[in-house]
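Suppose you are handed a protein chain with no further information: no name, no annotation, nothing but its sequence. What can you learn? This example shows the usual starting point.
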Amino acid sequence: MEEKLINQVSDRKEGHYKPYGWHHWPDYPWMSYQFRRALGETQEGGGAISEVFQVGERIDPSDSESWCREWRAIGDRNRLRGDQEEAAGHIVTARNCWLRAVDYYREAEFWLEGNDPRRLEIFDQLEYCSKKWGSYFNPPMESVEVPYLDGKTLYAYFLRSPNSTEERQPVLMCFGGLDSFKDEMWFMVAHGAIQRGMSVLMVDGPGQGGTIRRHKLTNRHDYEVPVGKCIDYLETRDDVDASRIAMSGSSLGGYYAARAASFEHRLAAAVSHGAIWSVNDLWGDADDSHGLAGHITWVFGADNMAEALKKGEAFKLEGVIDKIACPYLIVHGGYDVLGVDQAQKVYDYAKANGVDVTLRLVGEEETGAEHCQHDNPTLGQELVNDWLAEKLGIDQSKLKPA
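A reasonable first move is to predict its three-dimensional structure. Written in C-alpha cells, the prediction is:
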C-alpha cells in the first residue's frame, strides 16, 4: 500500500515549504494540514494571510482547545466588524469580513467532538456570516432546504451567476467530503463556477454541515439518493437548465460524485475533486489513534474506527463506475498527503470500462499538488470549472464582465 505523505516524519522542526505547500508544524502533520488549508483559502477570500499566521503563532499544536479558541477569536473579530461596517454603509468591506469569518469559524470547530455543543454554536455563527455575505450577492443567495427522506431536509445555498445572460443557467451541485461542507465549497469550487456563468447549489449532504449537526443524519454509500433529491429540486426551478446539471464532490465527496454519476444518469457531467477508489483502502489499518478518527466515527455514525471500517466496506467503486454515462473528470494533487494511487486506480478502471474519463494530476512545480489543491485552491477552481464550462457548452468569451 502506498505510504502517505501525511505520515512521513520530517527532519526539520521549523515551518518550511514542501511539494504540497507550507508545512507549519512538522511534528504535528494533521494540524499542519488544516493550517495549510486555511492559508490557501485566503486567496479565495476565506481569510487574510497576516491573520492566519497570527493565529498560527498563538496556537499550541498539541492543544486542540487553543486551536478552537484562536480561530474563533478572529472569526468573532471579523463577524463583528462586518456587522459594524454594514451599519456604516460600507457593504463591500462588510462582505469581505463576513467571508473571512466563515472560514475562520470552519477552522475553529474542526477538532471539536461531534457532540460538543460548541460545534453547533460556532456553525450557527458561520452560517450567519455566509447568509449575510450572500444577501448582498446579485441576485441574493437563497438559503434552501432540499426535501430529503422521512421529513428531513438537506441544507443548501443556491446562487445564480451574475456573469451569464442565459435565463436558464447550467448548475454545478457542490458537495464536500468527510469534513468539508457547503459553506467551504465557495473557496474550493463554487466561486469558479459562478465566474464562468454557472449557477451553484452548495449542499450539506448526509454526514455534512447542518445536515449532520441538526438532523443527525450520517453519511451513506449510495450517494445517488441525496444527489437525486437535489436534482429533483433543481428541476422545479424555472431559472435552471435541467439538461445541464453537473456535480462536483471534494475529498470523500470524490467518492460521492463517482458513485452518484454511476446511478443518477440525469447528471450532465461529474467531477471527483480528489478521487477515492475505496474508503477502507484509503484508511488502511487505521484505529482510534488515527488523526481524523473523531471525524470519521462521527460522520459514519460509528462508536469507534472498527465500526466505521465495517460501514466503510460498502464505500468502493469497483463494479460501480463502469456505469458512468456522462463525462467524468478527476482532479487530484500529485503530492496529495493522503495518497495518489487511488486516483490512478479510479481512472484506470473507468477508462478500461469505456467511461469518458479525464485525469488531471497537479504537479509540484505548478503548485496545487496538495489534497484538493488546498495549497492553491484557485488553481483547482480553474481546472475543474474550465473543464465543466466546455462540457456544458459555455462560451466564456460571451460572459458578462465580473
